[in-house]
Amino acid sequence: MYHTITPTDKTRRWILRGLAIAVIGIVAGAGSPAHARAQSDSQCPNVEVVFARGTFEAPGVGDTGQAFVQALTSRLGGKSVDVYPVDYPASLDFQEAAQGVIDASNKVESVVATCPHTKIVLGGYSQGAAVAGYTTSDTLPPGYVLPVGITGPMPATIAPHVVAVTLFGKPSNGFLDLVDHGAPPIEIGRLYSAKSLELCAAGDPVCGDGLDRAAHSAYKGNGMADEAAEYAVSAITSSTQ
Prior knowledge:
- The protein is an alpha/beta fold.
- It has a single domain, classed as Rossmann fold, CATH 3.40.50.
- The chain contains six helices and five strands, in the order αβαβαβαβαβα.
- The chain has helices spanning 9-24, 62-74, 98-114, 127-136, 173-179, 224-238, and strands at residues 47-52, 81-85, 119-125, 162-168, 196-199.
- α4 (127-136) links the parallel β3 (119-125) and β4 (162-168).
């Protein structure tokens, strides 16, 4: 289902906050992944999928995420795959969407610290694609000032462990401008752009310029979950990480 997001000043502030979190690499919760104890390879999955569901989908990876995970797993020839659903409300309250950026960043860093040989696939659908995109970002809107004492993006050493980024129905800059003129564009970070796949169904008004609301809900069955899985498998098998 296509969901209309009502813009408010609070929305803009919290989208900016979500981007800032992605850039500075803040990790929520007790303890930092950098201090986690590394596990043996036998305890670690070959692949970790970190996926953020779309607006109003029930907790988990959502229908599109599930279709993608199933397509990916079936193509990996018995490799072990763990799936992490990004923990955030996925509601119309975008101030809470920042929780997803925090949680996704936290999980990615934790996997790198504990299972350095595990290959990470980061993804999301709709609002979840925005969350995943902001998680990779290394830029801020002009004039936006980071909090005192916090500098720099997430460590560049994290990026090689993320072998693919798959985004379904990521909100376009035009859509963001329509719902909130002050929202920053979702810019994929330079260390992730070459390994990112952005899928937008024909007619989708969220990621493209279409008018077909049903198109935004079509990713689970329109072949794009398979396309994304093929892309991720290629990245996984070719990675030397």
